[in-house]
Amino acid sequence: MKKFLQRVVLVAVAMATAQVAVAESWRINNDTSKGAHFVDINAAMASELVKDGDVLYLDPGANITGDQTITKAVTVIGTGWDFNDKPYSPATISANLYVKSQATLTGIKMTGKLYPQYNNIVIQRCAIYNGIEQADANIESKYVKIINCYVEVPTRYTAIRGAGTSNTATQSWEIYNSYISSGGNGTHSVHYLYQPVIVNCIMYCDWNGNLFNNITNGTIKNNILLSYDSGGWIPANCSGCSVINNCVYGANTLYPNNTVGFTSRDFSQVVIQAGAGGSWMQLIEGSPAIGAGEGGIDCGPYAKGSLYPFVTYGMPKHIPYFTEAAVPAQPTDGKVKVSLKIVNQND
Amino acid sequence: MSKPITNRWGLRGWLIAMCMCCSAIASAQIQLEYYWDTDPGYGKATALPVSTDADEAGTYQVTFEASTAGLTVGLHKIGMRALSAEYWSPTIFGYVIITENIYADRIEYFWDEDPGYGQATQVSIATGDDPTTVSFEVSTAGLSEGVHMLSFRSYAAGWSPTLSYLVRVESDELVLIDAIEYYWDTDGHPAFGQARQVTFTPANAVELTDLELEIPAGGLTGDRTLYIRAHSKGGWSPFVERTISFSAEGNYTLDETLAAGTARNFRSLSEMFTDFSTRGATSDITVTVRNGATFAYDASSEAALAMVQAVVDDMQEWGGRITFAAASGATLNLTCGTAEQLQVLQAFATHVNLQNVTLNINGAAYDFSMLDITEEQLCSGSTSTPRAWSTISSELTIAWTAVPTSKRYVKGYTAEGTGDLPAMTLTNTGADYDQIDYHVTIAKDGTELRTFVYSLRVAPSIATKTVNFTSPTPADAAVVDPGTATVAWSAVGAATSYEVTVESTAADGTVESTVTEQTATSVKITVATGYSYIYKVRAIGPCDNTAESQRSFTAFHANADDVAALRMLYDACGGTGWSKQWLFDAEVMKSTNYPGVTFNAEGRVTAINVTAYGLTGTLPTEALSLPALTTLNLSRNQLKGGVPASMLTPCTALQTLNLSYNQLTAVDEALPTSITSLDLGYQHRVYGASSQLHDLAPLGTVEMALAATYGQDWGQSTLMKYHHTAHNWSATPTYELRSATLGETYARLTYSGGYYHLASLDYRQPQDAELIMAQTSGTANGSVQPVRVTFVEADANVDQVVDVRDVQHTLNYVVAATGAEGLFCWSAANTFADALINIQDVVVTVNHVLDHTNTVAQARARRMTAVERAHAHGRLYVEDGYLCLTADTAVAALDIELQGASATQVRLLLPAADWQMASRATDEGVRLVVFSPSGKTLPVGTTKLLALRAEKASPIAADAADAHARSLTIGVEGGNATGLDAVQLTEALTARMEDGTLYVESNVECEAVTLSLYDPAGRLIVQYADATLHTGDNTWPVEQARQGVYLLQVRMANGTTDVIRIATK
């Protein structure tokens, strides 16, 4: 009997082991002819097949429209962005994306606004052309990480906006090695965040707005900061902030421990402006941002020694991608021969 | 990984700071001492200096350092006391631990969460030393990739503060691509990892060349989509998606001896049609037929025919062809039943090429291979290749029609025909390629099987063309500056290239030639001083036709003598201030050094055109030695003074001289006769501003009295009068009298009959008005002359005499009489001096008439002979106490002088409503002016004018005007001399002026006579005193400058005076 019981226990353990969820991979494509699992993220979230921990791949060329909401702790992997030399087209989320779970987004291009509405969301290597916003003080979304992203907004909007100066709903956001651009009078690059960490970024405001506004206890270092604001780069209402080792436009007695890198509102004094993806925003030769960061590292997203040196094209880490694919339009003597070049993104 | 740790926690005690407080001790002076461990006794311990001042509470605050020298490690006691006066305070004690220097002896670290002091990962370090840097490795085992918090602390006598750092932990492992898979759309989009796997060696970067993909069993047909994706442990790559067409293509064999299933082999035509119709036949296909074999295909069944039809449809849609080839011979026999089936097979045959293969359809041979030849290129004038289209099949009819293009350049073609296309000699008459398209129809029994187009493309011949040079090519035989000359030409029709030959000849006659061939239509030639060049461009067209053109030019050089002459002109006319200056000292001699100067090939100056360069000063009188100069244009500058002929004398070739728009004042010497085009116009006028004038002071002001006529010289400058053709100063251009700003024109002077005539008079300016006389024709057209204008008040008709004609003239103006003739000077007529001409002016004018001696009338009356009186317009006489007028012309106004009567002794008999009379007493009687304010006239015939109440009253002079204010001659009768011997004088003399000579005919001899001649303007122009009159003509030279009425005053020795009116024409 005892032996039997032992068998029963073993079986039960074995059954329990069989119940352990294995991460599944799912394809998303609005083009139903491509055989993807779901036409959009909403459909994936609605499916019982998709579980926490699963991976959602956006097909090349997919164009997801209509507001999307992530409600499961999934990883959404895009195709990268800002390239035109790959043998496939980027996927695009042409809509607002609400993240209401501890999800990870990587390699995604989206033209709508991103709404992080959960704790510990990771947004990495994404291009977001309508900004990131979580202005609802009643929704907790702490510890959001924005890494290696390109974030911009149309004129007169703020690039990254939290819930409030001292509101802990959006406390401790971390922004690393990203390009953050806002535009328009009275708008700001980063606004209403409590205890944010902003390190090794390029922050740019092309009009009369502040790079930082209503920030409390922030750590702002190793960044390249250029604002067209008449006040230069001065963080407005940045209470209790540590603002050091940034490469900035114009001296500032309030935050003296920074390097004056710009003598005019001209990015080319510090970084390369031409050449999207590759050389874009790399430091120019002799740039004042070289070695101006904390511990002697460079300022800006590409800095060696920084936590997340910028990765061009937003290629997701450890994901392979094709650089060349020569496929004939027709077989030759009945044979189809292709030539491929594939690289794994290890950076 | 390792992280250097700095350890600075050690205790180093040498002197121990002590503090004592001593309460109020009476003495102001106290002593302090201390000792370690054992008391040596009062006053024997180590003394301390002490402050002598207590605080307000009487307390001394003493701070001192106690030496620990010599003390052992461990706990020691220190005793301290104070002496005040003679009493020692109680000894107070303290305890001090004396230790060695203490260094950290261990370090510990932890990741992320603090496990508690001493519980983290320990790092041992040597003790007893003074380590400032400690290096050790920190293990990342068990950590996930990403950012972690690494914390350190050390322990010496206690735990140091914990230091933390953010560290990104990454795996050293290179993630490899471990899977590549692909699938066809027919595979149904398999899940990740479930597609067709590619075998390869995992690597971080994979390159696969000519990877042959597996095609599903049964093959693929049509357009299929291929998906390829790769995998590493990070996940799946984006897929590559491509579409591949699987229609039939490439090479196949038709060999029944090969095993079934042999790749790309058909064992029968049935297999072939089945495959092609299934896959689609959208490309060119070659089927190698087993040599010597014969294959048959029966298309009688619906299914068999449908396959052929499918292939035909594809071929027609995509334009592909099937080539059947054999090494030396093979046969394909296609058969069918109905005519419709036959059409399908024949249509198939039209898409087939045959190489050593015979294609029979129902036993008849078909070969459309020759349809592969769709075009022939020909040279114009050559013969085309005949095409034996009839050999396609004896079963078919071939009809063709020529379709020319819209150019229609091609000639000599056959318009239409059937069967074979004959050879034709074709020419292209155009400049471009042109072609004839033969639309060929292949039919069977009237049903069209196939059409195709065969083109004969004929190249044009450019042999009849020329190469046309275009800008900036120098003109032929031009002079070109050293440097580079560009020769350009228009593309020549169908030319394919151009051969450019440049031949340069040096001054010593050395000739060099270069030849280049190019497609561009321009070339640059290096031009060197002293060389001349001939360049030839030969266009090379199709079929080696050519066309060419040639030109030449010479490198610029300047004759030294001419340059010297230019320098003289340049210096004389303020060259350094010119807008474009001449460079005499330039390193390279170029024509551009002399803007405005043209040189010929010999380096001689042929033209100077420095218009508006800003020339100043006066033209030089030195000779301008430019023998080749043909054109000299110095217009629109600021040159002043005269035009010196001496400057131009050496310019024997000068043909065109333009000095317009300067400020020149005179031409005092005749200019060279070689000049055929002379422009002296618009002197003192500002170019482009019609109302602006330069300073006119150098011209002086001409006094001008308004008169009906003037002589040829009315005071204008020699520049205005210069007549270049006649080489004198007899020019008689027209002039206009204008306001000072030239904006208004008051009169025009035109020349005829030896006089200037005033015309178009509309003068309303005051006396002495400063005006401008502007030349409006001739060489100096537009030039100006300041004039100061005067007029004779009341002289309305500007004949310089104020008489009854002025009355009538003014009256006509007032009543706006029709038919009024002659000039009317508004200003002269405005005798009432207001803004209007009205009857008041007439009245005042009458008074003016009466104020003036009517010398004309008197003179006429006194000299008029009986014959003349008989021919006068009328006669005035006294009859029966009345003054009567008998006239043959209607009289409008009368000026009558009576002797022997006063104003009160005469009464006007004319109706008072229409006639008025004004009178003025004279020495002899009375003078009367009769006029009609209402414009009436005295009728022809006899009119009783006045009733006379003086018995001796008789007319002694009369003047009259008709309704047009023209002069009427009225004779008087019944009058006698009135104490003036002038009657005798008048009758004795007559005068006239001809050709600059004054003739005075006298019938008596007189001495001591004074003759005074007044011109029409009233100016005394000549006076001869103490002259002797002989009988007959007496002559004196006079200057007859203008046309009009001259007055000759004759004063006898006895003082008798008379005036003779001389009218000149």
Explain what you see.
- The complex is a heterodimer of chains A (347) and B (1065).
- Chain A is built from two helices and 30 strands.
- By secondary structure, chain A is mainly β.
- In chain A, 7% of the residues lie in helices and 32% in strands.
- In chain A, strand 1, helix 2 (41-46) and strand 2 (55-58) form a beta-alpha-beta unit.
- Chain A has helices at residues 2-19, 41-46, and strands at residues 25-28, 55-58, 63-65, 68-70, 75-77, 92-94, 97-99, 104-106, 109-110, 114-116, 122-124, 127-128, 132-133, 145-147, 150-152, 160-161, 174-176, 179-182, 188-194, 197-199, 202-205, 210-216, 219-221, 224-227, 236-239, 242-244, 247-249, 259-262, 320-326, 337-344.
- In chain B, helix 1 (269-279) packs across helix 2, helix 2 (302-318) packs parallel to helix 3 and helix 10 packs across helix 12.
- In chain B, a hairpin with a 3-residue loop joins strand 60 and strand 61.
- Chain B contains twelve helices and 72 strands.
- Chain B has 1065 residues and is mainly beta.
- In chain B, 10% of the residues lie in helices and 40% in strands.
Strand order of the largest sheet of chain A: 1-2-5-8-11-14-17-20-23-26
> Which regions of chain B have little confidence, pLDDT < 50, spanning 5+ residues?
1-28, 975-984
Rounded average pLDDT of chain B: 86
Counted by DSSP, the helix tally of chain A is 2
Number of helices of chain B: 12
Q: Helicity range of the residues of chain A?
A: under 10%
Q: Sheet with the most strands of chain A?
A: 10 strands, parallel
Summarize the entry for a quick read.
The complex is a heterodimer of chains A (347) and B (1065). With 347 residues, chain A is mainly β.
What keywords describe this structure?
heterodimer, A: mainly beta, ten-stranded parallel beta sheet, disordered N terminus, B: 1065 residues, seven-stranded mixed beta sheet, 72 strands
